[in-house]
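Thread: quick sanity check before group meeting

JM: Hey all, I'm pulling together slides for Thursday and realized we never actually wrote out the predicted structure for the chain we discussed last week. Dropping the sequence here so it's in one place. If anyone has concerns about the input, flag it before I start.
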Amino acid sequence: MRFLHRSIKEEVYVEQPEGFEIYDRESHVCRLKKALYGLKQAPRAWYERIDSYLMKLGFTRSEVDPNLYFKVIDDKPLILVLYVDDLFLTGADRLVHECKRELASEFEMKELGLMHYFLGLEVWQKPGEIFLSQGKYVVKILERFGMVDCKPVSTLMELDFKKLSGIAARPVLRNATKYRQLVGALMLLVNSRLDICFAVNTLSQHMVEPHHSHWIGAKNLLRYLCGTITHGLRYTVGNVGLLGYTDADWAGSVVDRKSTSGCCFSLGSASISWMSRKQKSVVFSTAEPEYIVASMASCEAV
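JM (edit): ok, ran it. Output follows.
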């Protein structure tokens, strides 16, 4: 309902709805004054409306994420995340209740309580602890690719995984689309599973022309996920300190001899940011890739 009844600035005309035509004016069209579902301007009209109202309430829009708003009152933060027409609030109880009351006075709202499931991410909350996982999503991937009853393994990559880029990778995989679909599904899983970040990064480098060995490596990763469905991120109350870790190999790629960077940041009891990425240039010493990944990690921290 949030996309409906929002004023639009452009001139938009639509045909008369079937069954509601005006007699002797069937060839006429109607000019829209309010947004409708399916209209390209509808999302922008809604965002402009909610953005202006949040600013009126004293929120500050994040420079990094335009859907993230925050404000601090008496040293107590209130954070609001906007996703289409869904709102997520976190902060001090008093500030949350006040914000919900102010929003309800302006918009038609329905409170759903604590967040439990959002965009494939499961959120389990209890006093002093929040656990994030994508167990249901893992099960869907296993069912989609027929690996529900597979034998789990404890390692997500083979020791000689580099051979996937060499001559031993042939022959070319016939159904390349299925391989791309699997890697694409695994990319979404990296949102809560930093342990598979490097493996997914390696598999994604062969999307153009995947070989049979690449498919075997992807299935091996599915076997690992089958045995680690319940893995996730556990955040607990305690000392909160930002820690960062970096690492890089040297000329690890068999194809172009480029190095791979990896970094991870933890805040308190669990990680909050991680990445595994091939470097853009070829280096000539073991020290150079370490400097490059340190620079990348510094940018991420800032």
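AS: nice. Helices lie at 42-56, 93-106, 135-144, 176-189, 197-204, 212-226, 287-301. The two ends are 38 Å apart (CA to CA).
JM: adding both to the slides.
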